[in-house]
Write the C-alpha coordinates for this entry.
Amino acid sequence: MTTTVDPFAREHLPPLALWPELIFDLPELQYPAELNCVAELLDAHAARGDGDRVAIIDGERSLTYAELLSLTNQMANVLVSKLGIAPGNRVLLRGFNSAIFAATWLAVVKIGAIAVATMPLLRARDLLPVVEKAKVRFALCDHRLTDELAAVTTEHPALDSVLRFGGGGPLDLEVLAAAQPTTFDTFRTAADDTCLIAFTSGTTGQPKGTMHFHRDVLAICDLFPRSTLRATRDDRFIGSPPLAFTFGLGALLLFPLRLGATAILVEKPSPDVLLRAMAEHRATICSTSPTAYRAMAGLAKGFDLTALRKCVSAGEALPAGTRAAWKQATGIELIDGIGATELLHIFLSHTEEEARPGATGKPIPGYQCVILDDEGRELGPGLVGRLAVKGPTGCRYLDDDRQALYVENGWNLTGDAYLRDDDGYFHYQARTDDMIISAGYNIAGPEIESALLTHEAVAECGVVGLPDEERGQIVAAFVVLRPGYAPDASTTRLLQDHVKQTIAPYKYPRRIIFKEAFPRTESGKLQRFKLRESL
Ligand code: 3UK
Protein backbone atom coordinates (compact mmCIF):
# COMPACT_ATOMS: atom_id res chain seq x y z
CA MET A 1 0.00 0.00 0.00
CA THR A 2 1.34 3.46 -0.79
CA THR A 3 -0.14 5.92 1.61
CA THR A 4 1.13 9.03 3.29
CA VAL A 5 1.27 8.50 7.00
CA ASP A 6 -0.17 11.28 9.14
CA PRO A 7 2.74 12.33 11.42
CA PHE A 8 0.51 13.90 14.09
CA ALA A 9 1.08 11.30 16.81
CA ARG A 10 4.83 11.12 16.33
CA GLU A 11 5.06 14.92 16.37
CA HIS A 12 3.05 15.24 19.58
CA LEU A 13 4.77 12.64 21.75
CA PRO A 14 6.41 14.13 24.83
CA PRO A 15 10.13 14.96 24.50
CA LEU A 16 12.19 11.79 25.06
CA ALA A 17 13.76 13.22 28.21
CA LEU A 18 10.32 13.22 29.84
CA TRP A 19 9.45 9.62 28.94
CA PRO A 20 9.47 7.00 31.66
CA GLU A 21 12.30 4.50 31.50
CA LEU A 22 11.06 1.44 29.55
CA ILE A 23 12.13 -2.08 30.46
CA PHE A 24 11.91 -5.01 28.05
CA ASP A 25 14.06 -7.54 29.85
CA LEU A 26 11.72 -10.55 29.55
CA PRO A 27 11.98 -12.93 26.57
CA GLU A 28 8.24 -12.57 25.82
CA LEU A 29 8.71 -8.81 25.23
CA GLN A 30 11.13 -9.11 22.28
CA TYR A 31 8.91 -7.77 19.49
CA PRO A 32 10.05 -7.12 15.91
CA ALA A 33 10.59 -3.53 14.76
CA GLU A 34 7.69 -3.80 12.31
CA LEU A 35 4.53 -4.84 14.09
CA ASN A 36 0.79 -4.34 13.74
CA CYS A 37 -0.85 -5.74 16.86
CA VAL A 38 -4.04 -6.71 15.02
CA ALA A 39 -2.12 -9.13 12.82
CA GLU A 40 -1.11 -10.95 16.00
CA LEU A 41 -4.47 -10.65 17.78
CA LEU A 42 -6.61 -11.67 14.83
CA ASP A 43 -5.02 -12.87 11.56
CA ALA A 44 -2.60 -15.16 13.40
CA HIS A 45 -5.38 -17.48 14.59
CA ALA A 46 -6.84 -18.21 11.19
CA ALA A 47 -3.30 -18.67 9.84
CA ARG A 48 -2.73 -21.28 12.56
CA GLY A 49 -5.85 -23.21 11.60
CA ASP A 50 -7.95 -21.88 14.50
CA GLY A 51 -10.42 -19.95 12.34
CA ASP A 52 -13.35 -22.02 13.59
CA ARG A 53 -12.86 -21.22 17.25
CA VAL A 54 -15.31 -18.73 18.74
CA ALA A 55 -13.78 -15.27 19.13
CA ILE A 56 -16.67 -13.12 20.35
CA ILE A 57 -20.13 -13.76 21.75
CA ASP A 58 -22.54 -10.90 22.37
CA GLY A 59 -26.27 -10.72 22.98
CA GLU A 60 -27.01 -11.04 19.29
CA ARG A 61 -24.52 -13.47 17.87
CA SER A 62 -21.33 -15.39 18.07
CA LEU A 63 -18.43 -14.85 15.68
CA THR A 64 -15.61 -17.29 14.96
CA TYR A 65 -12.07 -16.00 14.45
CA ALA A 66 -12.52 -16.43 10.69
CA GLU A 67 -15.77 -14.44 10.75
CA LEU A 68 -14.34 -11.69 12.95
CA LEU A 69 -11.36 -11.45 10.59
CA SER A 70 -13.64 -11.13 7.54
CA LEU A 71 -15.81 -8.49 9.22
CA THR A 72 -12.75 -6.52 10.35
CA ASN A 73 -11.27 -6.66 6.86
CA GLN A 74 -14.52 -5.52 5.26
CA MET A 75 -14.72 -2.60 7.67
CA ALA A 76 -11.05 -1.79 7.02
CA ASN A 77 -11.85 -1.59 3.31
CA VAL A 78 -14.70 0.86 4.01
CA LEU A 79 -12.49 3.03 6.20
CA VAL A 80 -9.74 3.26 3.61
CA SER A 81 -11.63 3.33 0.31
CA LYS A 82 -14.90 5.05 1.27
CA LEU A 83 -13.84 7.39 4.10
CA GLY A 84 -10.25 7.91 2.97
CA ILE A 85 -8.79 7.35 6.44
CA ALA A 86 -4.98 7.30 6.30
CA PRO A 87 -2.53 5.61 8.66
CA GLY A 88 -1.90 7.82 11.66
CA ASN A 89 -5.32 9.54 11.46
CA ARG A 90 -7.25 9.52 14.73
CA VAL A 91 -10.67 7.85 14.66
CA LEU A 92 -13.17 8.50 17.44
CA LEU A 93 -15.07 5.37 18.46
CA ARG A 94 -18.33 5.37 20.39
CA GLY A 95 -20.21 2.25 21.28
CA PHE A 96 -21.39 -0.20 23.91
CA ASN A 97 -19.41 -3.40 24.46
CA SER A 98 -20.40 -5.54 21.48
CA ALA A 99 -18.92 -7.57 18.63
CA ILE A 100 -19.46 -4.82 16.09
CA PHE A 101 -17.82 -2.20 18.32
CA ALA A 102 -14.86 -4.53 18.89
CA ALA A 103 -14.55 -4.99 15.12
CA THR A 104 -14.41 -1.20 14.57
CA TRP A 105 -11.48 -0.99 17.00
CA LEU A 106 -9.66 -3.82 15.22
CA ALA A 107 -10.33 -2.31 11.78
CA VAL A 108 -9.03 1.13 12.78
CA VAL A 109 -5.82 -0.30 14.21
CA LYS A 110 -5.41 -2.71 11.30
CA ILE A 111 -5.31 0.15 8.76
CA GLY A 112 -2.60 1.83 10.84
CA ALA A 113 -4.93 4.52 12.17
CA ILE A 114 -5.29 5.45 15.85
CA ALA A 115 -8.31 4.38 17.92
CA VAL A 116 -9.70 7.03 20.26
CA ALA A 117 -12.46 5.16 22.06
CA THR A 118 -14.83 7.10 24.31
CA MET A 119 -17.16 5.94 27.08
CA PRO A 120 -20.71 5.47 25.77
CA LEU A 121 -22.37 7.94 28.09
CA LEU A 122 -19.98 10.88 27.61
CA ARG A 123 -21.78 14.12 26.80
CA ALA A 124 -20.88 16.59 24.07
CA ARG A 125 -19.03 18.82 26.54
CA ASP A 126 -16.81 15.85 27.55
CA LEU A 127 -16.24 14.77 23.95
CA LEU A 128 -15.30 18.17 22.60
CA PRO A 129 -11.93 18.49 24.41
CA VAL A 130 -11.05 14.94 23.27
CA VAL A 131 -11.84 15.72 19.63
CA GLU A 132 -9.90 18.98 19.82
CA LYS A 133 -6.87 17.59 21.63
CA ALA A 134 -6.47 14.55 19.36
CA LYS A 135 -7.41 16.57 16.22
CA VAL A 136 -10.02 14.02 15.24
CA ARG A 137 -11.66 14.18 11.80
CA PHE A 138 -13.32 10.77 11.70
CA ALA A 139 -15.83 9.08 13.97
CA LEU A 140 -17.52 5.68 14.04
CA CYS A 141 -20.54 5.83 16.29
CA ASP A 142 -23.22 3.43 17.52
CA HIS A 143 -26.54 4.54 16.03
CA ARG A 144 -27.92 5.04 19.56
CA LEU A 145 -25.18 7.47 20.53
CA THR A 146 -25.18 9.92 17.64
CA ASP A 147 -27.03 12.81 19.33
CA GLU A 148 -24.16 13.93 21.54
CA LEU A 149 -21.76 13.56 18.64
CA ALA A 150 -23.92 15.78 16.44
CA ALA A 151 -23.57 18.52 19.05
CA VAL A 152 -19.78 18.10 18.86
CA THR A 153 -19.71 18.41 15.05
CA THR A 154 -21.52 21.73 15.28
CA GLU A 155 -18.84 23.10 17.64
CA HIS A 156 -15.95 21.43 15.89
CA PRO A 157 -16.62 21.30 12.15
CA ALA A 158 -13.25 19.65 11.47
CA LEU A 159 -14.90 16.44 12.65
CA ASP A 160 -16.54 16.13 9.25
CA SER A 161 -16.80 12.41 8.69
CA VAL A 162 -19.13 10.47 10.97
CA LEU A 163 -20.24 6.95 10.12
CA ARG A 164 -22.93 5.20 12.15
CA PHE A 165 -22.99 1.52 12.89
CA GLY A 166 -25.40 -1.03 14.29
CA GLY A 167 -28.65 0.47 12.97
CA GLY A 168 -28.76 -1.45 9.71
CA GLY A 169 -29.45 1.71 7.68
CA PRO A 170 -28.26 1.88 4.03
CA LEU A 171 -25.26 4.06 4.97
CA ASP A 172 -24.38 2.26 8.21
CA LEU A 173 -20.88 0.83 8.45
CA GLU A 174 -21.94 -2.82 8.62
CA VAL A 175 -24.08 -2.46 5.50
CA LEU A 176 -21.30 -0.74 3.54
CA ALA A 177 -18.90 -3.38 4.84
CA ALA A 178 -21.04 -6.26 3.58
CA ALA A 179 -20.33 -5.14 0.00
CA GLN A 180 -16.55 -5.11 0.52
CA PRO A 181 -13.94 -7.83 -0.03
CA THR A 182 -13.18 -9.96 3.06
CA THR A 183 -9.44 -9.56 2.63
CA PHE A 184 -7.29 -6.58 3.54
CA ASP A 185 -3.50 -6.12 3.64
CA THR A 186 -2.70 -5.12 7.20
CA PHE A 187 -0.88 -1.77 7.23
CA ARG A 188 2.74 -2.35 8.17
CA THR A 189 3.21 -0.16 11.22
CA ALA A 190 6.29 0.12 13.41
CA ALA A 191 6.17 -1.49 16.85
CA ASP A 192 6.46 2.02 18.28
CA ASP A 193 3.73 3.62 16.20
CA THR A 194 0.82 4.90 18.27
CA CYS A 195 -2.27 2.73 17.79
CA LEU A 196 -4.52 4.07 20.52
CA ILE A 197 -5.00 7.24 22.52
CA ALA A 198 -6.89 6.61 25.75
CA PHE A 199 -8.22 9.62 27.60
CA THR A 200 -8.10 9.46 31.38
CA SER A 201 -11.35 9.66 33.23
CA GLY A 202 -9.74 12.48 35.20
CA THR A 203 -11.82 14.03 37.95
CA THR A 204 -10.63 17.58 37.39
CA GLY A 205 -9.15 19.66 34.58
CA GLN A 206 -8.92 18.86 30.91
CA PRO A 207 -8.77 15.15 30.03
CA LYS A 208 -5.30 13.79 29.30
CA GLY A 209 -4.69 11.61 26.25
CA THR A 210 -2.31 8.70 26.85
CA MET A 211 -0.55 7.39 23.75
CA HIS A 212 0.13 3.67 23.41
CA PHE A 213 2.01 1.77 20.74
CA HIS A 214 1.34 -1.50 18.92
CA ARG A 215 3.98 -3.22 21.05
CA ASP A 216 2.31 -1.95 24.27
CA VAL A 217 -0.93 -3.71 23.31
CA LEU A 218 0.92 -7.01 22.94
CA ALA A 219 3.01 -6.43 26.08
CA ILE A 220 -0.04 -6.18 28.35
CA CYS A 221 -1.40 -9.38 26.77
CA ASP A 222 1.87 -11.25 27.26
CA LEU A 223 2.37 -10.30 30.92
CA PHE A 224 -0.57 -10.23 33.40
CA PRO A 225 -2.80 -12.81 31.63
CA ARG A 226 0.03 -15.35 31.43
CA SER A 227 2.01 -14.89 34.64
CA THR A 228 -0.70 -13.87 37.07
CA LEU A 229 -4.16 -14.63 35.72
CA ARG A 230 -2.84 -17.79 34.04
CA ALA A 231 -5.59 -17.75 31.45
CA THR A 232 -5.71 -20.27 28.59
CA ARG A 233 -7.20 -20.49 25.09
CA ASP A 234 -10.17 -22.37 26.53
CA ASP A 235 -11.22 -19.48 28.75
CA ARG A 236 -14.37 -17.46 28.19
CA PHE A 237 -13.82 -13.85 29.33
CA ILE A 238 -16.63 -11.64 30.62
CA GLY A 239 -16.99 -8.43 32.63
CA SER A 240 -18.34 -4.92 32.80
CA PRO A 241 -15.72 -2.20 32.12
CA PRO A 242 -16.34 -0.40 28.80
CA LEU A 243 -13.93 -1.18 25.96
CA ALA A 244 -13.18 2.55 25.97
CA PHE A 245 -11.60 2.07 29.42
CA THR A 246 -8.27 0.28 29.01
CA PHE A 247 -9.19 -2.07 31.89
CA GLY A 248 -12.08 -3.33 29.71
CA LEU A 249 -10.18 -3.17 26.41
CA GLY A 250 -7.50 -5.49 27.82
CA ALA A 251 -9.53 -7.78 30.06
CA LEU A 252 -12.51 -8.22 27.73
CA LEU A 253 -11.07 -8.02 24.21
CA LEU A 254 -7.27 -8.01 23.85
CA PHE A 255 -6.48 -10.77 26.36
CA PRO A 256 -8.93 -13.32 24.93
CA LEU A 257 -7.90 -12.52 21.34
CA ARG A 258 -4.20 -12.85 22.09
CA LEU A 259 -4.83 -16.31 23.54
CA GLY A 260 -7.28 -17.46 20.87
CA ALA A 261 -9.92 -17.65 23.61
CA THR A 262 -13.50 -16.28 23.66
CA ALA A 263 -14.68 -12.77 24.58
CA ILE A 264 -18.24 -12.48 25.89
CA LEU A 265 -19.33 -8.86 25.49
CA VAL A 266 -22.32 -7.50 27.40
CA GLU A 267 -23.84 -4.15 26.37
CA LYS A 268 -25.23 -2.84 29.64
CA PRO A 269 -23.69 -4.98 32.35
CA SER A 270 -25.54 -4.13 35.55
CA PRO A 271 -24.89 -6.73 38.31
CA ASP A 272 -27.93 -8.92 37.52
CA VAL A 273 -27.43 -8.70 33.74
CA LEU A 274 -23.78 -9.65 34.12
CA LEU A 275 -24.62 -12.61 36.39
CA ARG A 276 -27.22 -13.84 33.91
CA ALA A 277 -24.74 -13.60 31.01
CA MET A 278 -22.08 -15.38 33.06
CA ALA A 279 -24.44 -18.29 33.69
CA GLU A 280 -25.86 -18.41 30.17
CA HIS A 281 -22.49 -18.38 28.37
CA ARG A 282 -20.58 -20.37 31.00
CA ALA A 283 -18.00 -17.62 31.49
CA THR A 284 -14.76 -18.74 33.13
CA ILE A 285 -13.02 -15.39 33.85
CA CYS A 286 -14.77 -12.27 35.10
CA SER A 287 -13.24 -8.77 35.36
CA THR A 288 -15.05 -5.93 37.06
CA SER A 289 -14.88 -3.39 39.89
CA PRO A 290 -14.95 -4.04 43.65
CA THR A 291 -18.36 -2.33 43.87
CA ALA A 292 -19.80 -4.70 41.28
CA TYR A 293 -18.42 -7.77 43.10
CA ARG A 294 -19.99 -6.52 46.31
CA ALA A 295 -23.35 -6.05 44.59
CA MET A 296 -23.12 -9.39 42.76
CA ALA A 297 -22.15 -11.31 45.92
CA GLY A 298 -25.61 -10.67 47.30
CA LEU A 299 -27.31 -11.95 44.12
CA ALA A 300 -25.01 -14.80 43.08
CA LYS A 301 -27.06 -17.57 44.75
CA GLY A 302 -29.71 -17.43 42.04
CA PHE A 303 -27.27 -18.15 39.17
CA ASP A 304 -25.31 -21.14 37.92
CA LEU A 305 -21.70 -19.97 38.15
CA THR A 306 -20.12 -23.43 38.11
CA ALA A 307 -18.01 -22.63 35.02
CA LEU A 308 -16.47 -19.54 36.64
CA ARG A 309 -12.87 -20.11 37.77
CA LYS A 310 -11.12 -16.72 38.01
CA CYS A 311 -12.19 -13.19 38.93
CA VAL A 312 -10.20 -9.97 38.55
CA SER A 313 -10.97 -6.83 40.55
CA ALA A 314 -9.50 -3.47 39.47
CA GLY A 315 -10.23 0.24 39.16
CA GLU A 316 -10.55 0.93 42.88
CA ALA A 317 -9.16 -0.51 46.10
CA LEU A 318 -10.62 -3.91 47.01
CA PRO A 319 -11.92 -3.89 50.59
CA ALA A 320 -11.14 -7.09 52.54
CA GLY A 321 -14.87 -7.53 53.24
CA THR A 322 -15.69 -7.57 49.54
CA ARG A 323 -13.00 -10.22 48.93
CA ALA A 324 -14.53 -12.31 51.72
CA ALA A 325 -18.13 -11.80 50.52
CA TRP A 326 -17.27 -12.89 46.96
CA LYS A 327 -15.37 -15.91 48.22
CA GLN A 328 -18.30 -16.88 50.37
CA ALA A 329 -20.77 -16.47 47.52
CA THR A 330 -18.76 -18.28 44.82
CA GLY A 331 -15.78 -20.01 46.42
CA ILE A 332 -13.47 -17.86 44.27
CA GLU A 333 -10.52 -15.87 45.64
CA LEU A 334 -10.47 -12.52 43.84
CA ILE A 335 -7.34 -11.43 42.00
CA ASP A 336 -6.88 -7.75 42.85
CA GLY A 337 -4.79 -5.67 40.45
CA ILE A 338 -3.97 -2.00 40.16
CA GLY A 339 -3.68 -0.60 36.68
CA ALA A 340 -3.74 2.87 35.18
CA THR A 341 -4.62 4.37 31.81
CA GLU A 342 -1.07 5.80 31.67
CA LEU A 343 0.41 2.29 32.02
CA LEU A 344 -2.34 0.76 29.86
CA HIS A 345 -3.14 -2.12 32.24
CA ILE A 346 -2.40 -3.93 35.52
CA PHE A 347 1.17 -3.80 36.89
CA LEU A 348 0.76 -4.82 40.56
CA SER A 349 -1.30 -7.89 41.44
CA HIS A 350 -1.19 -11.46 42.80
CA THR A 351 -2.28 -15.01 42.05
CA GLU A 352 -5.12 -16.57 44.06
CA GLU A 353 -2.62 -18.53 46.20
CA GLU A 354 -0.75 -15.35 47.10
CA ALA A 355 -3.84 -13.28 47.92
CA ARG A 356 -3.47 -11.26 51.09
CA PRO A 357 -6.58 -9.41 52.27
CA GLY A 358 -5.97 -5.66 52.26
CA ALA A 359 -2.93 -5.84 49.96
CA THR A 360 -2.88 -5.28 46.18
CA GLY A 361 0.01 -7.73 45.77
CA LYS A 362 3.48 -7.46 44.22
CA PRO A 363 4.81 -6.06 40.92
CA ILE A 364 3.86 -8.52 38.18
CA PRO A 365 6.76 -9.97 36.13
CA GLY A 366 7.91 -7.27 33.69
CA TYR A 367 7.24 -4.34 36.08
CA GLN A 368 9.13 -2.81 39.01
CA CYS A 369 7.51 -0.81 41.81
CA VAL A 370 9.00 1.24 44.64
CA ILE A 371 7.72 3.70 47.22
CA LEU A 372 9.23 7.19 47.04
CA ASP A 373 9.19 10.05 49.54
CA ASP A 374 8.47 13.64 48.54
CA GLU A 375 12.11 14.17 47.56
CA GLY A 376 12.16 11.08 45.33
CA ARG A 377 14.14 8.88 47.74
CA GLU A 378 13.16 5.22 47.99
CA LEU A 379 11.42 4.31 51.24
CA GLY A 380 11.88 1.03 53.11
CA PRO A 381 9.15 -1.34 54.31
CA GLY A 382 6.33 -0.02 56.48
CA LEU A 383 6.52 3.61 55.34
CA VAL A 384 3.79 5.36 53.39
CA GLY A 385 4.92 7.17 50.25
CA ARG A 386 4.23 7.64 46.55
CA LEU A 387 3.88 4.54 44.36
CA ALA A 388 6.37 4.58 41.45
CA VAL A 389 6.30 2.10 38.57
CA LYS A 390 8.49 1.08 35.59
CA GLY A 391 7.99 -1.53 32.91
CA PRO A 392 7.52 -2.02 29.17
CA THR A 393 4.55 0.40 29.09
CA GLY A 394 4.36 3.88 30.57
CA CYS A 395 3.04 7.38 30.45
CA ARG A 396 3.20 9.41 27.24
CA TYR A 397 0.64 12.18 27.33
CA LEU A 398 -0.44 13.71 24.05
CA ASP A 399 0.95 17.24 23.98
CA ASP A 400 0.51 17.93 27.69
CA ASP A 401 2.62 19.75 30.30
CA ARG A 402 1.38 17.36 32.96
CA GLN A 403 3.82 14.76 31.56
CA ALA A 404 6.46 16.23 33.90
CA LEU A 405 4.18 15.60 36.89
CA TYR A 406 3.47 11.94 36.09
CA VAL A 407 7.04 10.95 35.23
CA GLU A 408 9.90 11.69 37.64
CA ASN A 409 13.43 10.34 37.05
CA GLY A 410 12.07 7.69 34.72
CA TRP A 411 9.43 6.47 37.19
CA ASN A 412 5.68 6.65 36.52
CA LEU A 413 3.95 8.21 39.54
CA THR A 414 0.38 7.01 39.65
CA GLY A 415 -0.78 9.46 42.31
CA ASP A 416 -1.38 6.69 44.85
CA ALA A 417 -0.09 6.53 48.41
CA TYR A 418 1.16 3.00 49.17
CA LEU A 419 3.30 1.12 51.66
CA ARG A 420 5.30 -2.07 51.15
CA ASP A 421 5.34 -4.60 53.99
CA ASP A 422 8.26 -6.78 55.10
CA ASP A 423 7.18 -9.55 52.73
CA GLY A 424 7.17 -7.27 49.70
CA TYR A 425 3.38 -6.89 49.44
CA PHE A 426 2.13 -3.43 48.45
CA HIS A 427 -0.77 -1.99 50.47
CA TYR A 428 -2.93 0.75 48.98
CA GLN A 429 -3.61 3.72 51.30
CA ALA A 430 -5.42 6.38 49.29
CA ARG A 431 -4.97 8.69 46.33
CA THR A 432 -2.16 10.99 47.47
CA ASP A 433 -4.44 14.02 47.26
CA ASP A 434 -7.21 12.23 49.21
CA MET A 435 -5.09 11.55 52.34
CA ILE A 436 -6.87 13.04 55.33
CA ILE A 437 -4.78 14.96 57.84
CA SER A 438 -6.65 15.31 61.10
CA ALA A 439 -5.12 16.64 64.32
CA GLY A 440 -1.68 15.78 62.94
CA TYR A 441 -2.52 12.19 61.98
CA ASN A 442 -2.40 10.91 58.38
CA ILE A 443 -5.57 8.96 57.81
CA ALA A 444 -6.38 6.94 54.68
CA GLY A 445 -10.08 7.02 53.83
CA PRO A 446 -10.19 3.54 52.22
CA GLU A 447 -9.19 1.89 55.53
CA ILE A 448 -12.25 3.43 57.17
CA GLU A 449 -14.40 2.49 54.16
CA SER A 450 -13.26 -1.13 54.52
CA ALA A 451 -14.26 -1.08 58.18
CA LEU A 452 -17.66 0.44 57.46
CA LEU A 453 -18.33 -2.06 54.67
CA THR A 454 -18.06 -4.93 57.14
CA HIS A 455 -21.25 -3.63 58.80
CA GLU A 456 -24.43 -5.13 57.39
CA ALA A 457 -26.21 -1.75 57.31
CA VAL A 458 -23.77 -0.37 54.70
CA ALA A 459 -24.40 -0.86 50.98
CA GLU A 460 -21.76 1.63 49.80
CA CYS A 461 -19.58 4.21 51.48
CA GLY A 462 -17.01 6.89 50.75
CA VAL A 463 -14.79 8.60 53.30
CA VAL A 464 -13.35 12.10 52.82
CA GLY A 465 -11.71 14.82 54.88
CA LEU A 466 -13.78 17.92 55.60
CA PRO A 467 -12.24 21.23 56.69
CA ASP A 468 -12.35 21.78 60.44
CA GLU A 469 -11.03 24.77 62.41
CA GLU A 470 -9.71 22.80 65.32
CA ARG A 471 -8.32 19.63 63.69
CA GLY A 472 -7.50 20.88 60.19
CA GLN A 473 -9.71 18.16 58.75
CA ILE A 474 -12.20 15.72 60.20
CA VAL A 475 -13.08 12.30 58.90
CA ALA A 476 -16.53 12.26 57.29
CA ALA A 477 -18.25 9.18 55.90
CA PHE A 478 -20.90 9.23 53.19
CA VAL A 479 -23.04 6.11 53.43
CA VAL A 480 -25.69 4.45 51.29
CA LEU A 481 -27.73 2.24 53.63
CA ARG A 482 -29.10 -1.22 52.91
CA PRO A 483 -32.91 -1.46 52.94
CA GLY A 484 -34.27 -1.71 56.47
CA TYR A 485 -31.93 0.85 58.08
CA ALA A 486 -33.01 4.38 58.93
CA PRO A 487 -30.75 7.36 58.15
CA ASP A 488 -30.88 8.67 61.72
CA ALA A 489 -28.79 9.38 64.82
CA SER A 490 -28.96 5.83 66.13
CA THR A 491 -27.62 4.36 62.86
CA THR A 492 -24.88 7.02 62.94
CA ARG A 493 -23.88 5.91 66.45
CA LEU A 494 -24.08 2.25 65.47
CA LEU A 495 -21.66 2.79 62.55
CA GLN A 496 -19.30 5.00 64.56
CA ASP A 497 -19.07 2.35 67.29
CA HIS A 498 -18.51 -0.34 64.68
CA VAL A 499 -15.52 1.55 63.23
CA LYS A 500 -14.05 2.18 66.70
CA GLN A 501 -14.19 -1.55 67.39
CA THR A 502 -12.71 -2.52 64.02
CA ILE A 503 -9.73 -0.15 63.56
CA ALA A 504 -7.80 2.42 65.62
CA PRO A 505 -10.59 4.35 67.39
CA TYR A 506 -9.22 7.85 66.61
CA LYS A 507 -10.00 7.22 62.91
CA TYR A 508 -13.76 6.92 63.43
CA PRO A 509 -15.90 9.21 61.23
CA ARG A 510 -16.99 12.21 63.27
CA ARG A 511 -19.64 12.96 60.68
CA ILE A 512 -21.82 10.48 58.81
CA ILE A 513 -23.90 11.71 55.90
CA PHE A 514 -26.53 9.43 54.40
CA LYS A 515 -27.08 9.36 50.62
CA GLU A 516 -29.44 7.56 48.27
CA ALA A 517 -26.74 6.88 45.65
CA PHE A 518 -23.16 7.84 44.85
CA PRO A 519 -21.62 9.88 42.03
CA ARG A 520 -19.42 7.56 39.94
CA THR A 521 -17.40 7.94 36.75
CA GLU A 522 -18.30 5.76 33.81
CA SER A 523 -15.34 3.59 34.70
CA GLY A 524 -17.00 2.95 38.07
CA LYS A 525 -14.86 5.14 40.31
CA LEU A 526 -16.37 6.98 43.23
CA GLN A 527 -16.05 10.75 42.72
CA ARG A 528 -15.00 11.83 46.21
CA PHE A 529 -14.75 15.48 45.20
CA LYS A 530 -18.44 15.44 44.26
CA LEU A 531 -19.29 14.00 47.66
CA ARG A 532 -17.38 16.86 49.30
CA GLU A 533 -19.08 19.42 47.07
CA SER A 534 -22.51 17.98 47.81
CA LEU A 535 -22.50 19.47 51.32
C1 3UK B 1 -6.90 3.44 41.09
C2 3UK B 1 -6.75 1.20 42.18
C3 3UK B 1 -6.45 0.52 44.36
C4 3UK B 1 -5.54 4.00 41.45
C5 3UK B 1 -7.18 0.67 35.31
C6 3UK B 1 -6.88 -1.72 35.54
O1 3UK B 1 -8.21 2.03 36.97
C7 3UK B 1 -7.56 1.99 35.94
O2 3UK B 1 -7.10 3.12 35.30
P1 3UK B 1 -7.47 4.65 35.63
O3 3UK B 1 -6.55 5.49 34.84
O4 3UK B 1 -7.19 4.84 37.20
C8 3UK B 1 -5.94 4.55 37.79
C9 3UK B 1 -6.07 4.72 39.29
O5 3UK B 1 -7.19 3.95 39.79
N1 3UK B 1 -6.88 1.97 41.08
C10 3UK B 1 -7.01 1.16 40.01
N2 3UK B 1 -6.98 -0.14 40.40
C11 3UK B 1 -6.80 -0.15 41.75
N3 3UK B 1 -6.57 1.52 43.47
N4 3UK B 1 -6.50 -0.79 44.03
C12 3UK B 1 -6.69 -1.18 42.75
N5 3UK B 1 -6.75 -2.48 42.42
O6 3UK B 1 -5.75 5.23 42.09
C13 3UK B 1 -4.89 4.19 40.07
O7 3UK B 1 -3.83 5.12 40.09
O8 3UK B 1 -8.93 4.87 35.45
C14 3UK B 1 -7.24 -0.48 36.08
C15 3UK B 1 -6.49 -1.81 34.24
C16 3UK B 1 -6.43 -0.68 33.45
C17 3UK B 1 -6.80 0.57 34.00
N6 3UK B 1 -6.74 1.66 33.18
Summary: The mean pLDDT is 96. Residues 369 and 382 are 15 Å apart (CA to CA).
